[in-house]
Write a structure and sequence with these properties.
Order of helices and strands: HEHEHEHEHEHEHEHEHH
CATH class: Alpha Beta
Oligomer: single chain
Distance between the termini: 23 Å
Shape: globular
Structural class: alpha/beta
CATH architecture: Alpha-Beta Barrel
CATH topology: TIM Barrel
Radius of gyration: 16 Å
Strand order of the largest sheet: 7-6-5-4-3-2-1-8
Number of domains: 1
Number of strands: 8
Largest sheet: 8 strands, parallel
């Protein structure tokens, strides 16, 4: 799958769950339950213990599109790509992440907040610019302002995105959004509340 096809699949999905849990068991449960509700794309963050191995297990399933999130350095990028990650996400600008993504045909999302940072992310090789933290920066109105001066740039707002404002972000110019706690509620996962996790997923599908 080409980088363009990857990004189109992300656009079509509209929502990418950001899986950030304190344990790999909770992360696996989150993926299982969200998949049961119809979600097929997941960002597995490097803050999860054993995250690279989890990417490897999930990436074996051809129905899933798995990405690596909060990737701190080029060595971790290579490990994630070798494990099967198809997109790489960092909530900051790091030009050192681009080469491995290009060589593997993976999409790179780099984080930014201001117009200056957006330009830096694009110059560093970002295929998608992750706007983080989106809600505290102004929410959909901030995305609309950025999109007006960066036409054609694929923006992915993350941080404080809820089911109630997904449509507003997309209307403002986001290509798709990242959702963390609103979909991957670790307290509900720990409590075994599968119905609540699946209901949250259905609200954004």
């Amino acid at each position: 799958m080409s980088q363009a096809a990857l990004i189109q699949r992300l656009r079509t999905a509209r929502v990418v769950p950001v899986v950030r849990t304190r344990s790999v068991a909770h992360a696996e449960t989150a993926v299982e339950w969200l998949r049961g509700a119809g979600i097929r794309i997941f960002e597995i963050t490097m803050t999860i213990p054993g995250a690279v191995a989890l990417i490897g297990r999930l990436a074996k399933d051809p129905d899933l599109l798995i990405g690596a999130g909060t990737v701190p350095d080029a060595a971790t990028v290579r490990a994630c790509l070798d494990a099967g990650a198809r997109f790489v996400v960092a909530p900051w600008v790091d030009a050192g992440l681009s080469l491995s993504c290009r060589q593997a045909g993976a999409a790179l999302m780099l984080g930014a907040l201001t117009p200056t940072e957006v330009r830096a992310a694009l110059a560093a090789g970002a295929d998608v610019v992750k706007i983080f933290p989106a809600s505290s920066a102004g929410g959909p109105s901030h995305i609309k302002a950025l999109a007006s001066v960066f036409p054609g740039v694929a923006f992915c707002p993350t941080g404080g995105v809820e089911a109630s404002n997904v449509a507003a972000y997309l209307s403002a110019g986001a290509a798709f959004v990242g959702m963390g706690g609103a979909l991957v509620d670790e307290a509900r996962i720990a409590a075994g509340d599968r119905a609540a996790i699946e209901a949250a997923a259905r609200r954004v599908l």
